[in-house]
Amino acid sequence: MKRVNRWAWPALDAVLILAASALAWYMRYEAELFRSVEPGFYNPLSAYLGLFSGLTVIFLFVLAANGGYTPRRGSSLISEIARVGNAALVSIVIIVAITFGLRPLAYSRLLFFYGGVLIVCLLGAARAIRRQIEARLRQRGVGVQRVLIVGAGEVGRAVMRTMVARPDLGYSVVGFVDDDPVKGKTDIGRFRAFGGLDCVESVIETERVDEVIITLPWMYQRKITALASTCERRGVRPRVVPDIFQLSLSRVDVDDLGGIPLIGVKEHNLPGSARVIKRIVDIVLTAMLLLVLWPLFLIVAIAIRLDSPGPALFLQTRVGQDGKLFKVFKFRSMQHGAEEQVPALSEMNEASGPLFKIKGDPRRTRVGRLLRRTSIDEFPQLINVLRGEMSWVGPRPGLPSEVEKYEPWQRQRLDVPQGITGLPQVSGRSDLTFDEQCLLDIYYIENWSLSLDLTILLRTIPQVLSGKGAY
Asked: Which residue, among 392, 313, 319, 393, has the nearest Cα to 354 in the 3D structure?
């Protein structure tokens, strides 16, 4: 099967390149797009077959040399298309140089321009379709590597949250082992704790593990070596996280000093320039929406007042960045004084960790049920964004009573401005455990970019419309 896959994509690319070249010939000589063919310069398709074949061969060699057919987990579609574009440019330059040297006026240079654009479009579309098919198959468990993580410390959790946030990598964590008497017996969200390191061999057999990722410090070199030998004996691929990751949960930053690699650690907190950009986007987007949504705010407020006694807005103390307290604005979706009823309803709590949530919360009003399902109750938090207390995207702000129960590693979600939406909200919302939400929030902090914020905002729209996980 691997041999078939190794040749399938080059063969498909060859067919698409020839098809793009033939279409380029039609556009130049038959459709005469952008420029008519002068008398005596018409060339039939047969005159180009040799050049098109040569272009195909050169393209495949250039793309292969550039790693275009080397499997890369987590590579983006843009990077794949960039490799295709680079290979198309290089191969066309070579072909044009050859034709200019042999027959300088016989072939149309414009045709090769058409061909280059069409090659990038067709091969890029093929790769986009392949990614969609692979994503669907992975949702059904096809092509997913089952992974066991050895070590549940900071590095182990870094691996877990990356795999939660990046399902496109094709990994499924079956669980973890750790010799710590507490960590080895305490599940982290969906990740099951199997016990100590002596359980590795039995877990590999019972859970059908494909890979074992070892996240132990190098001071345990003998244990790491023994674990690697156990994995190889069982036909399972062992992988070891470099010890540099023990320095921080952040991504390692690698720089170059005249050929000498310099390894450092990126900070958790967003750099100053990123904070400025994020703040500008928050202000502009919020101001625009407030101008559009104020009639809706008025209608919702009236509906709340008519439905049940009490104010339309609900103010609640939350914990913001660096532990600062602030009042969050929400449309009231529960009976007035609902917070006082929490102790009496504690046995009905369906959330994990320090959170308190009930799917069929009896305190919710008729209008409140609609507000929660559509997330309209969160709209007044635009005021918090405008005031600088929150951001559009970030970890959801917790209650002081919840934050007091955070474990040390979970408090990292307070390192950045808290947000209206975030990675957990587009990855399952309330259906996720609190540990999983924290893993996703910390992944967001470590991998922040403007494009990531935009992606989360765009993914929030269908999530809100579907109402899935909202209660």
From this structure: 319
